[in-house]
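W.,

You were right to be curious about this one. When I first looked at the sequence I had no strong expectations either way, so I just let the prediction run and decided to look at it fresh. Below is the sequence, 298 residues in total, followed by the output.
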Amino acid sequence: MTGILLINKPAGFTSFDVIAKMRGISKIRKIGHAGTLDPMATGVLPLFFEGATKACDIMPNQDKRYRARFRLGLTTDTQDITGKVLSEAPVMATTADVQAVLERFAGDIEQLPPMYSAIQVNGQRLYDLAREGKTIERETRPVTVYELNLLESDDIAHTYTIDVSCSKGTYIRTICHDIGEALGCGATLTELCRTEAAGFMLRDCITLEQAQQESQAGTLFERLLPIESVFAALPRVTLDERRAKLFQNGVRLDLVRNKIPRIDGTFAVYGGETKFLGIAHNDYDKNELHMDKLFSLV
């Protein structure tokens, strides 16, 4: 079965743990995922079954949204509550102070990746070095925080919940850590839930327990979303049957002769009104329609 299943990842599971669990539930071996979540995190984890795995690395929308809670006055080596405590400090900051500091972390910002991350430096994962007690120089990376809102606050417990809409590669625990540094008392991420990924929403996800129940009832695969749902936001080009067959056979169609619409960037290609074929772009230098990825045949 080919398609996308939206899972609400439970805390304590790695993304690969979820895949292993779903292989057992679905009896399908070829499963991929989009957007790794730390074990402590919960929320949207899109799983790609069979032929849909080809879409994992080419999704046009890789933005994410999170609900995160952090505590002021505490820092750890992992920047989250699972790590070793490095410092504890008195907290003088209030909700108003937190609200004011948030503005610094919205928009296009530079972020220093944490040592406990999967980023490779000189062929080594940072988290492997961190587990050996090593800290190395890292370069900051540009990320974009589209929205950063304070949802809840508790000035007595010094805990605060934020809503973060951001680009791929943004570390939410680092945002919380940096907020703490800006306030002079430190901060640690205590809860994290991804509420949106690749345009998919938390409300549309099912739990592993629900997946097990639906598998036993024989209805699990009815939950699969079609591959084209990943590309729903792209412009659409529709080919007639003859041109669709040429496209699926790798023929580069002449843009003018085949009346291909002038679209800059990637677009979705359909054979007729409903058959999703793949994604492509217009090569204006050669005046050809260029296939980027074929997903299905007419």
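Here's what jumped out at me. The chain has three domains: 3-60+202-226, 64-197, 234-294. And, maybe more interesting for your project: Helices lie at 15-26, 95-102, 126-131, 172-183, 208-217, 241-248.

Coffee later to discuss?

I.
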